[in-house]
């Protein structure tokens, strides 16, 4: 197990990060990373779990791209988070640090998020976190989860603005017909209108 882990670390350390277009895409993704959004998500998680993500660190200073990735990568924090928002979402959280178990934790978290009501479009891909290819997407997912939690009525700490809810208005047929007889103000008014006294242009005189 230790030998396999060492080989994996060596491969990860020596593999190319991408050239040309790939490198340019990765650079742009990194530039979009917002430490302020990260900090909001981090403090929300800490408040919900009652633990510091990095014990002894300054709570007012963002962890930053790499450190935030490090504390979330094994998926354990994320599983604890969704289990607090929706108890029983992840039945078993793997404690082993083997890559397979860490990726399984992340997968279970994402699956639980979907069951909780989070749209697929708002979920990051496993590789985005595990391989640190798109931490911006990870932070966005946490904010989307925070909005969903409010919508679900979670009474603990909040993150972001509550999502609006679908609220259709149903009118009776009589009410709809009544509305069709009203002239909108943007159309002007016909009240008191007549042709008396109207004179456009120069009048034409007809004589015998």
From TrEMBL:
Q: Name one GO biological process term.
A: actin filament organization
- Calponin-homology (CH) domain location, by residue? 35-149
Check the record and name the SUPFAM superfamilies matching this protein. Answer: Calponin-homology domain, CH-domain
| Entry GO terms, CC | actin cytoskeleton
Under SMART domains, the record lists: CH (SM00033)
Its family remark reads: Belongs to the calponin family.
Give the protein name, as stated in the record: Transgelin
Q: What is the lineage of its organism?
A: Eukaryota, Metazoa, Spiralia, Lophotrochozoa, Mollusca
